[in-house]
């Protein structure tokens, strides 16, 4: 079967919602597969150049994990074309999209007939938390919890602009996790949780000024990771009176600002002049999640 998959990127945490809150955005990983005599991964976009072209490709390795889970030893070989508009190692869920691509590759080639809940469970088990895979799979804003099973709620996220400020340098998730504390005191945990709780309530009410204010108060990860994202505090100072708030996207180093719904591109270009080494992109929420279709390739 020839098929194609389109998977949106995601931002996660949104301040205090560490490893729990995620939002699908309109940058995409696209994959097209057709049966072949040997496994071959072809990178279409420049950002993916240099990635493995055979069975050592990450997408294949995920597909192989899924096959083994269902007791299947061999996956029929394919030629897989992959393109992506998602910057790698920038905190925009690129690994989560690749994980979902691998799951869908196994699903289609092995006729596993996996449902949405099956895919979400497998992806979350692989990633360890649902904050990126859930929105990329389901679309929109997803608030999730994982402990043997995935519990989640989808919420609308509307009437606001999301401006991604993407630096030139990469930041690996492993490095960003290594700076986090192993534990927090009970009192700090209660305080941090209350910030996260009200953040969720603010999303429910679409009270973006409240959410933006709470983003500054996060105690779970941003106080520790900001030293790895040196432009974060500079952006906070510069954008203080211009946006609702801003947060480190995922593990970083991308920073995302919440701004008024009709924030003009001219204003964003003006702001970019003060941080010329960063790419500034106005993004939209993707509400469709992962889409699978028959490929045009014969």
TrEMBL record:
Family, similarity comment: Belongs to the GHMP kinase family. Homoserine kinase subfamily.
Entry-linked InterPro entries: GHMP_kinase_C_dom, GHMP_kinase_C_sf, GHMP_kinase_N_dom, GHMP_knse_ATP-bd_CS, Homoserine_kinase, Ribosomal_Su5_D2-typ_SF, Ribsml_uS5_D2-typ_fold_subgr
PROSITE patterns the UniProt entry points to: GHMP_KINASES_ATP
Its EC number(s): 2.7.1.39
Biological process (GO), any one: threonine biosynthetic process
Protein name, entry field: Homoserine kinase
Organism: Sediminibacillus halophilus
Major localization listed first in the record, in broad terms: cytoplasm
Catalytically driven reaction(s): L-homoserine + ATP = O-phospho-L-homoserine + ADP + H(+)
GO molecular function: ATP binding; homoserine kinase activity
